[in-house]
């Protein structure tokens, strides 16, 4: 296919299959793209927009277009087209997540350390959740503040409570406290940060992108899938790493380099996240669907009155 005839917005891989979505997210969550300057990202956006307008610069190759679309998808919001803040991008999940998770797993013994690293993690998560929300549903600064405080409080209460509760438990159980806190906080942080979608509904369309209305049930479905994905993303590193570290710390050479235990955990968590970030994002399609029969009665009746039985499913961006 010639570059001039390429549909830049058509999925490069089949998004109806897990493997197709996995290839897509390996592409757009590539942490190397987080190192690129804004000017390079803006160039990629300009090339994508030129392709959409059918006016490509002479000599543009298909590979250049694919790479420009990769950069565009990694750095610009799918709803608004605005450049996302660096820390909130999925391409920053590996470097950001590995550092925070590694230190959460390392410094789990004292309450002050638990409080500090859970606060850092929830601040990071709040920014990621806000950045990757469905941007068609605006949220006020006050709602952002309430969401942040609520999620952080949940994480701290869970972590500190379990930390104190597990003082007499086996060492491995205590090492799993950070994951329990992260999982609990995700169940609060994401819905709170995206509360406008739950309160007012999320825009749903037909298969051609024509808006049909707003659905609260669609919002709940999308946000639930995001919560599951985020917990899955963190689980392998935060559950398996403590087992690995507990066994490694029995070796004499590890006992001599205790100052390197933190950096070692950071690097090993990074290995998990390189695979788990795209895998977790791929569990559910980003362009989510829902049967018309499962929508709110008033929206269902509105769609049926206008289109009859021709529309069976509605579609919406669930966010990441």
TrEMBL record:
Transmembrane segments: 227-245, 266-285
Gene Ontology cellular component terms for the protein in this record: mitochondrial inner membrane
Entries under InterPro entries matching the protein: Mtc
UniProt-listed GO biological process terms: serine import into mitochondrion
Topology within the bilayer: Multi-pass membrane protein
This protein's UniProt keywords: Amino-acid transport, Membrane, Mitochondrion, Transmembrane, Transmembrane helix, Transport
GO molecular function ontology, one term from the record: monoatomic ion transmembrane transporter activity
Cellular localization per UniProt: Mitochondrion membrane
Main location: mitochondrion
Pfam families: SFXNs
Domain of life (superkingdom): Eukaryota
Entry's family note: Belongs to the sideroflexin family.
PANTHER family on file: SIDEROFLEXIN, SIDEROFLEXIN-2
The name this protein goes by in its record: Sidoreflexin
């Amino acid at each position: 296919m010639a570059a001039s005839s390429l549909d830049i917005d058509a999925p490069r891989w089949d998004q109806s299959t897990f493997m197709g979505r996995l290839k897509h997210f390996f592409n757009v969550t590539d942490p190397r793209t987080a190192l690129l300057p804004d000017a390079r990202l803006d160039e990629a956006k300009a090339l994508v927009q030129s392709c959409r307008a059918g006016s490509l610069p002479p000599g543009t190759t298909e590979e250049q277009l694919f790479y420009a679309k990769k950069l565009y998808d990694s750095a610009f919001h799918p709803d608004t087209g605005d450049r996302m803040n660096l820390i909130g991008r999925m391409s920053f999940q590996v470097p950001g997540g590995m550092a925070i998770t590694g230190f959460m797993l390392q410094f789990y013994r004292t309450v002050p350390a638990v409080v500090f690293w859970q606060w850092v993690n929830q601040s990071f998560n709040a920014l990621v959740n806000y950045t990757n929300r469905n941007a068609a549903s605006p949220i006020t600064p006050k709602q952002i503040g309430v969401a942040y405080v609520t999620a952080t409080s949940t994480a701290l209460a869970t972590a500190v409570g379990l930390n104190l509760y597990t003082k007499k438990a086996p060492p491995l159980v205590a090492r799993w406290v950070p994951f329990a806190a992260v999982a609990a906080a995700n169940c609060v942080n994401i819905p709170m940060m995206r509360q406008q979608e739950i309160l007012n509904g999320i825009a749903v369309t037909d298969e051609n992108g024509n808006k049909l209305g707003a659905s609260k049930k669609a919002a709940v479905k999308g946000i639930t899938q995001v919560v599951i994905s985020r917990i899955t993303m963190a689980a392998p590193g935060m559950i398996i790493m403590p087992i690995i570290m507990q066994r490694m710390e029995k070796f004499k050479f590890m006992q001599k380099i205790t100052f390197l235990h933190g950096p070692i955990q950071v690097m090993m968590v990074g290995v998990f996240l390189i695979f788990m970030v795209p895998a977790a994002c791929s569990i559910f399609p980003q362009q989510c669907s829902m049967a018309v029969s499962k929508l709110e009665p008033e929206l269902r009746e509105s769609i049926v009155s206008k289109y009859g039985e021709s529309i069976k499913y509605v579609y919406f961006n669930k966010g990441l």
